[in-house]
Write a structure and sequence with these properties.
The chain is mainly alpha-helical. The chain is built from 19 helices and three strands. The protein folds into two domains: 290 residues, no CATH class; 106 residues. Helices cover 70% and strands 3% of the residues. It has a three-stranded antiparallel beta sheet with strand order 1-2-3, with helices on one face. Strand 1 and strand 2 form a beta hairpin. The protein is globular, with a radius of gyration of 26 Å. The two termini are 35 Å apart. The relative contact order is 0.13. The mean pLDDT is 81.
């Protein structure tokens, strides 16, 4: 009697996503070959070279898909916290037993291969976040729930910063997009954008002018909320009056920095503002002043973070990007050569294996962080546009998969997947083009590296497996 095979599972698999994944992986492997290719090693299957090792990682990643598909979908939310906890233990373990590479203690060395635990923590965090936010009594407005979300999202990057590896740690900012999709107010995103703008301004502009600008913005917002000239002039008069009282003794006797006595004037006048707005129950106005106070503290903390937390090479990269420093032969060398390589490709590129910037090793890390400039040089504008379109197709497809889920767990996990991939994609392309500072973020499925390829494969294929039960509530 013939055994009846259950083909429904294979019919429910989203093969479009898998095809895009395979296309990116194969194209990445070919470009790693182009980046490393030389006359002595020409065979793409040569396992002594990076492209040969990448081939092994690709084959092994395909074998990883088998257990992912074999596990019942209900297991993922059940074991999410356990998997997350194990990844946290791995991050702690690498700080104790790990091997240092490029100034960071981020790797476990196994024979001739290295494994980076921080790469795998991304998908474990996505699982833990999805599991927590999909519970029945979860509310994004509940203080306890917010605290636990912050804990889930902060523990991994804090441990990664201890390695130190700021590039891998910054990835966790991407999870804000997941929270936004699940109902977080857009004000938080706006404040995040303003924080980035303020960070740049603090590095480029004197604190005195930033201070004045923030106060002017506060008075402007105060007016638009109240539409009351009398209250506005009263607020300005109190501030300017206290400022004048402080200014003259300072000018003749103390010779303190202007920002200091402006700060004192603002502090004294703010006490009145807070009392007035609270008494009149002008809570929107009160929030504006609280945001201003937070912004002032933030501007002063930027310098501390910049000077004491960021490493010297991170500081220099940011300075080069912002035009504060010019270092084309030092920190800025990689980006400068990358832009030359991409620009030299023009419309159609120089042809496969014909990139001069590639062949003569002008761009360091060209098979990892700067793999995209290989595409630009050899495939030109047409090739880079095709690769970008391929990535965008994958991102849009994942959003489609996430939105068609009945299960809240799968939807949240799907948005975590697309947020992580988008952040990697956008930051990597941005740093290769000189639009963002170089922080060592690989291009998903494309850059050389077994840990990153495995982690992205697991991240994506868990979603593909969960999608097979899209009509069910997990």
């Amino acid at each position: 009697m013939a055994i009846k095979r259950d083909t429904s599972f294979w019919l429910r698999i989203d093969w479009i996503t898998i095809i895009i994944y395979l296309a990116l992986v194969v194209l990445g492997w070919i470009n790693i070959y182009a980046a490393v290719y030389n006359d002595e090693h020409q065979v793409i299957f040569d396992t002594t070279q990076r492209y040969g090792k990448q081939m092994i990682w690709i084959i092994l990643s395909l074998f990883l898909i088998i257990p992912i598909f074999a596990v019942d979908n209900k297991v993922y939310p059940m074991l999410a916290y356990i998997i997350y906890s194990l990844s946290i233990l791995a991050l702690i373990g690498v700080l104790i037993f790990g091997d240092a590479s490029h100034g960071a203690k981020s790797w476990f060395e196994i024979g001739n291969y290295k494994v980076q635990p921080s790469e795998f923590t991304k998908f474990t965090t996505a699982l833990a976040l999805a599991s927590f936010m999909s519970k029945q009594n979860f509310k994004l407005t509940n203080i306890n729930d917010i605290f636990l979300i912050v804990a889930i999202l902060l523990i991994p990057p804090l441990l990664i910063l201890l390695q130190p590896d700021a590039g891998s740690a910054i990835i966790y900012v991407a999870f804000v997009l997941v929270l936004y999709r699940e109902g977080m107010t857009g004000v938080i995103l706006l404040l995040g954008v303003l924080a980035v703008i303020l960070f740049v301004l603090v590095l480029k502009i004197d604190m005195f002018y930033i201070f004045i600008g923030l106060i002017v913005l506060t008075f402007t917002a105060f007016y638009f909320l109240r539409k009351n000239y009398k209250e506005l002039f009263l607020a300005m008069a109190i501030f300017l009056g206290i400022l004048a009282i402080l200014f003259f003794p300072n000018y003749f006797f103390f010779k303190l920095k202007p920002a200091l006595f402006i700060g004192v004037a603002f502090t004294i006048s703010s006490i009145y503002y807070f009392y007035y707005t609270f008494k009149k129950k002008l809570y929107n106005t009160l929030v504006i002043f609280l945001i201003l106070v937070g912004s002032l503290f933030y501007t002063y903390s930027v310098n501390y973070i910049y000077d004491n937390i960021l490493q010297d090479h991170h500081q220099t990269r940011i300075n080069v990007l912002l035009g504060i420093e010019d270092d084309p032969q030092g920190i800025g060398y990689n980006v400068n050569q990358s832009k030359i390589a991409i620009g030299s490709g023009k419309i159609y590129g120089k042809g496969f294996l014909n990139g001069t910037q590639t062949k003569y090793n002008f761009v360091p890390e060209q098979d990892t962080d700067f793999i995209f400039c290989t595409v630009g040089e050899e495939w030109g504008f047409i090739g880079t546009t095709f690769i970008i379109a391929l990535f965008l197709s994958l991102l849009l497809r994942i959003i489609y998969l996430a939105e068609r889920q009945r299960s809240k767990f799968t939807r949240i996990y799907g948005y975590a997947v697309v947020s992580i991939l988008f952040f990697h994609f956008a930051v990597n392309i941005g740093m290769v083009l000189g639009l963002l500072p170089v922080i060592g973020i690989p291009l998903p499925f494309f850059s050389y590296g077994g840990s990153s390829l495995w982690s992205f494969t697991i991240l994506l294929f868990i979603l593909i497996k969960l999608d097979t039960s899209r009509e069910e509530v997990i």
